[in-house]
Amino acid sequence: MNPFLSLCLFIVPIFFLLLKRRSKPSKRLPLPPGSLGIPILSLFGKPTVFIHGQAANKFVFTSDSSTISNQQVASLRALLGERNITELSGEDHKRVRDALVSFLKPECLKQYIEKMDAEVRRHIDMHWEGHQKVTVLPLMKTLTFDIICSLLLGIECGARREILIKCFETLVKGLWSIPINFPFTVYNHGLQATNRIRNIVKDLMREKRVELEQKGASISHQDLITCLLSIGEKNNKEGMSEDEIVHNVVTIMIAGHDTSSILLTFIIRLLANDPTICASVVQEQEKIAKSKASGEWLTWEDLAKMKYTWKVALETLRIVPPVFGGFRKAMKDIEYGGYLIPKGWQIFWVKSMTHMDGDIFQDPSKYDPMRFENQASIPAYCFIPFGAGPRICPGYEFARIETLVTIHYLVTRFTWKLCCTDNGFSRDPTAIPAQGLPIQIVPKKILQK
Fold first, then answer.
1. What separation in angstroms does the CA of 131 have from each of 134, 137, 328?
2. Which GO terms describe its cellular component (predicted)?
């Protein structure tokens, strides 16, 4: 072929392609405003965009996995396990979520109230009774961990619990660490701790599988691990793999421990700061206490009467959500709010900024439990302490029962006042009150003499 003709055949298509491109205006959107910071010191070394508000929350909780994924930061993913529910999407997410809900749905939780009641009473007798001063946050963490061991793992008091709590504390410290795996790092210690916890859970699974084979369906809901093991044997349903059970048990331990303990701590702080709200809570709880025979357990019907106390809990979650927000990952270039979120960027949705938006909640800084008198009036995706949509936390009802039972026994047995003049709190990354909230406590039986 003539060299000139060959050159023309090569150049002409390129010329028309360039002409076509120049004839169309560029649709490239600007990046979100702000600085990316120093890579190593920024959020785990990746570009991250913060979003908040009703539209942002709806976008996060309703987008499919081809748009944004639920992939967590590297440290969380490694320590919790890649098959945990926060990492899964599509049919895998639905299957695992359905399995967890089979244990955590209200009709099943009714069976666990007595056990939770017993754990709360035992905790108060051991750590509150006979003390003049306590520090609330560490005690609430002890309580919620004991409840997790009893109801979710089926581990009673003893050496195994003690080993587990030490590993658990180390794991929690490593969750938000920089994922550098050297022997002296917090992340490395967290990896070692999570491996020990997984081995304990696997041992429990072997024991409970044998027990399940011997006793059958009658024990299928005695604890979370037994429940998850039994699902695959019922009606030939697809169950969860061993890794999925282990990873999700660890994830629920983390979720149930930090969120509930922080919520309880800040309710106790509120009741010390606001005598009017405290009096209303005490009145509601003492009315229930007086209707019970001595030593009688609380019931599902009793919890249903604690309407004002739960409004106080919801308002606490609005103003001080235990978890600041959550991560997602852009799986493709996304146009959002007139900006471009490039593929691979992290998206961090922020609860607090939505909860304190004056366009959603009137006078948002005011502590007002009655704003939850009619929860249906709050627009969708505006109150998100437990998430929203198909990814709403499956442990919502578990947390409600745990909170109401604990507050019932505390306010009917004690009064308290704050020992710390600093009423602020920090985030690390969960909310932590100054000095862990030290309080002076007085048993009510002394006041009645």
1. 7, 16, 45
2. membrane
In the block, residue with structure tokens 């055949």: 9
More confidently predicted of 284 and 444: 284
Q: State pTM to two decimals.
A: 0.86
Q: Which two tokens stand for residue 57?
A: 């929350």
Strands (E), 266-310: none
**46-447: CATH, from 3.40.50.300, 1.10.357.10, 1.10.630.10, 3.40.50.720:** 1.10.630.10
Q: How many angstroms separate the CA atoms of 328 and 315, rounded?
A: 26
Q: Read off the DSSP letter of residue 31.
A: P
Backbone angles phi, psi at 443, to 5 degrees: -65, 140
The rounded distance, in Å, linking the Cα atoms of 447 and 449 is 6
Confidence of residue 238 (pLDDT cuts 50, 70, 90): low
d(CA 349, CA 434): 26
The residue extents of the domains of the chain are 46-447
d(CA 113, CA 118): 9
CA 75 → CA 53, 149, 258, distances in Å? 27, 24, 17
List the binding residues: 393
Binding residues for heme: 393
CA 24 vs. chain centroid, Å, equals: 47
Own/partner pairs for 198-205, CB < 8 Å, 24+ apart?
A: 198/81, 198/246, 198/250, 200/160, 200/163, 200/164, 200/167, 201/153, 201/225, 201/245, 201/246, 201/249, 201/250, 202/242, 202/246, 204/153, 204/154, 204/155, 205/229, 205/242, 205/245, 205/246
The DSSP-derived string for 70-88 is -PPPHHHHHHH-TTSTTT-
Cα gap 13→283, rounded to integer Å = 83
Percentage with pLDDT > 70 across the chain = 89
Name the pLDDT band for 44 (thresholds 50, 70, 90).
Answer: low
Q: Quick one: residue 57, left, alpha or beta (phi over 0 = left, psi -120 to 50 = alpha)?
A: alpha
| 174 to 12, 189, 199, 201, 243: CA distances (angstroms) | 59, 7, 18, 19, 20
